[in-house]
Design goal:
Blueprint lengths: L1 H4 L7 H13 L3 H21 L4 E5 L9 H4 L5 E6 L2 H11 L5 E5 L5 H7 L9 E5 L11 H11 L5 E7 L5 H10 L12 H4 L7 E2 L5 E2 L15 E7 L2
Parallel strand pairs: 1-2, 1-4, 2-3, 4-5
Antiparallel strand pairs: 5-8, 6-8, 7-8
Helix pairs in contact: 2-8
This protein binds S-adenosylmethionine (SAM).
S-adenosylmethionine binds next to α3.
Length: 236
């Protein structure tokens, strides 16, 4: 659905139908998806500035423009993780011949398996990217415990990058959109800032905090998007 909205070609009729339904309900959904990708780019640039050279991108999504390995210098390592076999096989094909990035099949609900399989040095700083993925984990799937496990494995100087769907100024509409996802692979769980703060427990939440995605260190004028919250935490 997301790939279709971003103008990609890696989607199926069921994705297109559901995406059109969701976008008809929230006309700025497509702008929100682009704003989310723009946040990914800005946050990776920010981490690079702070010396991070290892990235663990969980819930990578179908290969789309501006993937993390295209944003980092050759000496940086990128590990993509997704639980969708279609995503993993497409990403693996795309990365054939790319020396500093690999794709693994892995499930955020099993963080120990991801940590064991990722060819990264967890004694050094790592950027853990949880971008537009945690809203697919209802509380019953224990997202807070899984993210706590990731935080625990992160060395000092590591960063947690998070973006997450929220109702923003579109409460009624967004709750309808969440219903569309009832027939998708995973439900969509919209959370507010107070509910998201525990994901950053023990980390320093960096300026400007957990904010609407377009307010996170903007580097160009973008139409404001309120339905995605974004933030970056640092482990000291
Ligand atoms: C909306 S896409 C986000 C893509 C990318 N991170 C971005 O923000 O542009 C969400 C991705 O998360 C993946 N995903 C959802 N639940 C997951 C889980 N439990 N473990 C790993 N990947 C998951 C989906 O397969 C999908 O590819």
């Amino acid at each position: 659905m997301y790939d279709y909205a971003l103008g990609g070609k890696e989607n199926f009729p069921a994705d297109r139908i559901a995406a059109e339904r969701a976008m008809a309900m929230v006309p700025d959904a497509r702008a929100a998806f682009f704003a989310n990708r723009s946040f990914l780019r800005r946050s990776v640039a920010y981490l690079l500035d702070r010396g991070v050279r290892q990235f663990l991108d969980i819930g990578t999504g179908l290969p789309t423009q501006g993937n993390v390995h295209e944003l980092v210098p050759p000496d940086a390592q990128v590990v993509y993780v997704d639980y969708d076999p279609v995503v993993v096989s497409h990403a693996s094909m795309l990365l054939a011949g790319v020396g500093n990035a690999v794709t693994l099949a892995g499930d955020l609900r099993r963080p120990d398996e991801i940590l064991a399989a990722a060819p990264l040095d967890f004694r050094r700083p790592v950027g853990v990217l949880l971008v537009a993925v945690l809203h697919f984990l209802p509380d019953g799937e224990r997202p807070f415990a899984h993210v706590a496990r990731l935080r625990e494995a992160m060395a000092p100087g590591s960063h947690l990058v998070l973006s997450h769907g929220t109702t923003g100024d579109r409460a009624a509409r967004m709750n309808q959109v969440a219903k569309v996802y009832d027939s998708a692979t995973a439900p969509l769980v919209l959370r507010g800032a107070a509910e998201l703060m525990p994901f950053f427990a023990g980390l320093e939440l960096l300026d400007p905090g957990l904010v609407p995605v377009t307010d996170w260190r903007p580097d160009a004028a973008e139409r404001p998007v309120s339905i995605i919250l974004a933030g970056v935490g640092r482990k000291d």
